[in-house]
Amino acid sequence: MAERPKDSLKFELNERLKTSIRSESYGYVKVLTLYWTEGEIGFREEAQEFGRFVQDIYGYDVEEFEIPTLMSAQSLRGVVLNSAVAAGKHAISSKTQSLLIIHYGGHGDKDDDKHAGQERRSVWAAYAVGGPTLEWYKIQEDLMDFDIDILLILDCCFASQAGRASDRRTGRILALAAAAKNEKTRLPGDDSYTQGIMREMKKLVLENGYTSTLELHQRLLSRKAGLQATPQYIPIRLGHRDNDIRLTSTTVTVSTSADVKVSGSLLRFVLRTENLDRETIQSLMTWLGSDVPVEVTGMEIEEVLVTTKGIHNFLKRARLEETPLSTAMDDSNWREITSAWDRVLDLFHQYDLNSGNDESKERKVLVQNRIESFLSQLRSRNDECLDAVEHSALAASDNLEDFIVDQAIEDPTLQNIGIADQLHLRRIIRSEDTWPGQEKLSGTSAVVAEYKPYSPSRDQSDMEALTARVSQLSALLKANKKTAFRSLRCCGWEDEPANNRFILYFEIPVRFQDPEPEYRSLSDLLKNPRNLGRPSLDARLKVAHILAKAVQSWHNIGWVHEGISSSHILFFVSHQIRAVVYDEPFLQGFDLARPNVAPSIGRYVDDITFNVYRHPARQGPSREGHRKVHDFYSLGVVLLELGLWQDANAIVMPKRGERLEVSTMQEKLQAAARDRLPHYAGVSYEKAVTACLSGQPAVEKDDRNESELAKTFKKLVIDELAQGVRII
After folding, report:
1. How many CB atoms lie within 10 A of CB 606?
2. Alpha-carbon gap, residue 321 to 308, rounded angstroms
3. Per its UniProt record, what InterPro entries does this chain match (predicted)?
4. Please, what is the angle between helix 662-681 and helix 628-644, to 10°?
5. Between β-strands 173-177 and 149-155, what pairing exists: parallel, antiparallel or unpaired?
6. Which of 289, 26, 296, 20 has the alpha carbon at shortest distance from 151?
7. Cβ-Cβ contacts under 8 Å for 671 (sequence gap 6 or more)
């Protein structure tokens, strides 16, 4: 046999590039968890736990559905097919693959009464004996018409009866079934099939960075999994690819260290095109922005371009008035958005990244530096464009009927760029709906608990209003939101009248879960720095920028915090390295937080520990209602603490015989910022802190959404903080 030429690998790679083969990751993933509304105890809680698990570990969108006992099949068919339609539309519009995951926890019916014409098909039941049933196999047959991948996770008896083969479509349908046709599986608990699934999924993600359904099934077959029944792996429809689905996170983890180098082999691809015009650029972004295999370690270019592509798709549809928000945006909104988008496109014309025939080392270094500069500026201009779209979308939503806003929330183009979640949060804030009652904590997982005391002398009407506020706050903190908000997800709340307090429960992120999870407030770390070490200057500057962006995110949707202090900034401790994870602060303590539509007076406590963070106008019996500018002041105090790594109470502590007035406290904080911060944290950092402490972000004239205030805060605080830290 003749020897293959030396460049055969290059030839094979080029041949493969000529074909359009999509990778194993997905542009859209939806998880649907199903359980009976009147089913046996445990199924609801376990389904909800599974939903939270996949949301945390993969970042997937999760929807719960309680199967009613009346018109069960009809109701379930509508929900399942609507989810499949949404996934199918996204696959077509984005030209990426979509995945629908359906988890069912409940009973199965043997369906073996031959006299009644039963054929041992997949039938679900609300109870082990008696009660309503539904013919799942009929709904499953309807799913065969969709060109999407579908993963069924069936935790019920006789689960493998769902198996039927077909190859009519390109998408795959696979089933992970808890038991064979003649087997029963365990009820919800530590040894249930769903618990086994979650345990092994977590291990695979930690080991490989993703979950292979084939490898997951192999592990579930092992005795170590501790399952009673024999799990089944059923390729219901193979499509045109193999019978393995790979689950990966929808978020990309970016190193926080500028010194980290990407390891592994480097393959450089040369792209040639006749014309490098804007249309060609969009085509390249569509191609480069598609799914990338997990084996590829360098994701920077692709992720930046995915964002650019998402913005472009929104603008293209909005200009054709194909989005629910199109008609509600006024001319000023469009000018702001198109101006920001033009700056994105102009960037491509400013950079000549072609090295030509010059292959010298110096020329290659120059081109590499220009590429890095290009990517950095592209990311920045993407953010500016997203800010413009977000501001315009939120402002426009205030003038629309609720059903139109709901349509916008379901719009795939808005979901892709994160605006749909913002609209949902604004919807919660503006809504006059009655929020759900108490959601007491279920399960044994560790949580972060926050206690909200109230006066025992409150009358009934006050308690009803306060309870409604806590319920709304819980709904807001539970809803999906981008990481920039830096808040833990609320998983329940309850009223303790005996102790005159509410309790809010927050989930601990999966990456920090441990048999004995540990976290510290910034206040604790400032007072006891020796136990876990002090952060570097770079780390402190990064935390400051993250917190300022978090406050900006909450204000953008119309919500003020009202309790920003070092006691309400949390950091988790990594037990692996026995150190505080400083680059992931969480903003908690939304004790008195409320919409910015009406000022809040709140309860006043004359305590220096709290007063040091309060704006002077917010102190004393005749204080003003809380506004965004008051949050800025509180943030400034926290930023001062970070810059000096010193507790604010120590900064303002009066000398012997000195009377500490409100004005004196502010003067001491401003003096510390002016005299000490330039040395400890830099001039730009000092400017940002001084702006917060002196009330500079305030403006005289503004619209009802305080757009000018937001711009001023960004310019005087966020942009100045960014000068002192390399934002990755």
Report:
1. 9
2. 20
3. Kinase-like_dom_sf
4. 50
5. parallel
6. 26
7. none
Task: Select from 534, 538, 582 the least CA-distant residue to 681.
Answer: 538
CB atoms within 10 A of CB 383: 14
Q: Which of 679, 594, 676, 585 is nearest to 635 (CA)?
A: 585
Give the sign of the dihedral formed by CA 328, CA 332, CA 333, CA 339: positive
What's 439's DSSP letter?
Answer: B
Residues 381, 337: Cα–Cα separation, whole Å: 11
* Separation of CA 228 from chain center: 36
Residue 638's pLDDT is what?
96
Q: How would DSSP label each residue in 130-154?
A: SS-EEEHHHHHHHHTT--SEEEEEE
State both tokens at 403.
Answer: 């059903």
Task: Copy the structure tokens of residue 280.
Answer: 């060609």
| Ordered structural domains, the chain, with CATH | 23-247 (3.40.50.1460), 278-403 (no CATH), 514-728 (1.10.510.10)
Residue 424 · residue 397 · CB < 8 Å: no
Burial of 632 (0-12, 13-18, 19+ CB in 10 A): buried
Token pair of 644 as six digits: 């000096």
Place of tokens 């069924």: 152
What CA–CA distances, in Å, run from 507 to 157, 188, 448, 486, 638?
31, 21, 7, 13, 25
Task: Decide the pairing of beta strands 569-574 and 149-155.
Answer: unpaired
* Cβ atoms 212, 204 nearer than 8 A: yes
Q: What share of the chain is helix, strand, coil (3-state, %, to 5)?
A: 45, 15, 40
Measured distance CA(570)–CA(386) in Å, rounded: 28
Asked if residue 98 lies in contact with residue 143, where contact means CB atoms within 8 angstroms, the answer is: no
Positions of the chain with pLDDT under 50? 1-24, 164-169, 240, 251-268, 270, 276-278, 281-282, 285-286, 288-301, 355, 596-605, 622, 727-728
**DSSP one-letter code for 4:** P
**Radius of gyration, alpha carbons of the chain:** 28
473 token code pair:
């706050």
- Sequence-distant (≥ 6) Cβ neighbours of residue 368 within 8 angstroms: none
Do 379 and 411 form a contact (C-beta atoms < 8 A)? no
Q: Is the dihedral of CA 411, 414, 415, 419 positive or negative?
A: negative
Tokens at 222, concatenated: 């092992």
pLDDT at 530 (0 to 100): 65
Query: Does residue 49 sit in helix, strand or coil?
Result: helix
**What pLDDT does residue 35 have?**
94
31 and 48 in contact (C-beta within 8 Å)? no
pLDDT at site 523? 92
Give, as one character, the DSSP assignment of residue 260: -
Question: What does the DSSP assignment read for 457-480?
Answer: T--HHHHHHHHHHHHHHHHHHHS-
DSSP H or E stretch at residue 123: strand 123-125
Angstrom distance (rounded) from CA 321 to CA 684:
43
* Continuous segment of H or E residues that includes residue 447: strand 447-453
Amino acid in position 219? R
How far from each other are the two terminal CA atoms of the chain, in whole angstroms?
Answer: 51
The pLDDT of residue 550 = 94
Q: What are phi and psi of 236, to 5 degrees?
A: -70, -40
CA dist 258 and 598 (Å) reads: 43
